[in-house]
Amino acid sequence: MTLTTSSPIKAKLPNITKVPVLIQTIQAMFDQFGLQERYCKKYGDIFYTPKSSLLPPYVIFSNPQGIEQVFTADPNSFEISKQTTAPVRLLLGDYSLALLDGIEHKRQRKLLMPPFHGERMKSYGQTIRDITEKIISQWEVGQSICIRDYTQEISLRVILRTIFGLDEGSKYDELRNLLVDWLDIFNSSWKSLFLFFPWLQKDLGNWTPWGQFLRQKKLIHQILDSEIELRQNNPDTLGDDILSLMVSARDEDNQPMSKAEIRDELMTMLFAGHETTASTLAWEFYWLHYLPDVKQKFMTELNSINDLTDYNTILKLPYLGAVVSETLRLNPVVALIGRHLTKPFELMGYTFEAGTSLFFSIYLTHQREDIYPEPKQFKPERFLERQFSPYEYLPFGGGNRRCLGYAFALFEMKLVLTTILSKVEFELLDNRPLKSVRRGITFSPDGGVRMKVKQIKS
What we know:
49% of the residues lie in helices and 11% in strands. By secondary structure, it is α+β, with helices and mostly antiparallel strands. It has a single domain (15-456), classed as CATH 1.10.630.10. The strands form four sheets. The protein has a six-stranded mixed sheet with strand order 1-2-3-9-6-4, sandwiched between helices. A three-stranded antiparallel sheet has the order 5-13-10. Strands 7-8 form a two-stranded antiparallel ribbon. The relative contact order is 0.17.
């Protein structure tokens, strides 16, 4: 697929899609990436859909110059649309950093930043390794596994340990089981429809997906609220975990975060911090074993390291970094990221009115042949040969709304990959092309990547 820049402007608006929004939405539920490719081929790398009862007017684009215009624009030109972010709001809550605007967004981001960067982030390295090795100890030679089940277990344990300081016990078991069951409610395209169509959101009891969702969400909130109140009311319970840091944090006016703010940020971390990491790790295991040459280069680099607890060295391994980057390019866990206009805005020569949503497509941008030759091919070397701008490569979004936990996610993925592959040899059972499938608002490899344990090194 070749994506080109827009032709000379002949009208105020770019090419307008002809398919009703309801049909587009249903198509996107079952084939989000294929739909984007078909529309890009038909309409170009920027196209417009008029307002409907489901959504405000919106634009989808993938041109790096257009993305740069949005990322470098005055943040006050945009706000969060309650219509387009409704599924995210249902999952994470109104006070999630992903759903805040203006001063509130800036304040919350500043309060939340310290745990995810610098030496404090690296202090979690041993935790990540310990948890990963504990998972490996459960495997037996000859055992067939779904690797995503285990990457989810690892990433969930890491989140529960680093956020709450929980590693075992009744609280850990209860929260872990609730989260796994809650996230699995929308583990297919059919089930995900409930998040996107309000008329399906009817509580008809525990036997319905929406009834299950509401009850499990309430139980999760109750656990989080009790943990927050425990730390707020008992300073002696404060530790080095992220929740304690959030409770202790104060803004420029010396004001703490409210219980509701902390709870919704915890929901964001619990969801975004482990669901997305788990899926990307599963894709990384897939590509390393689907392409033997890539695996050989990876293992040659890994075997050159004497001390796998030297986290600074691991973070700087070039081929490891390239494998992670190429996976995030080819298999993004999020398809679109949007900005909602508060005032007229010029994008790529077109002027859009206030109330229009601008969606830049991570997937289509990463598929541009003018930036990534042979974009369908998994080629880590492309990240060794050149450096891509933040408008060409954007797996974590960008601008003032770039994912706060991106550095932590990269750190965790690199440690999990190196820890497991230094000790375990696998045979890929899903030795075929795999597609991304929807899990609620994110995407994951179809079937979770089935593998067989061939050897476990002491």
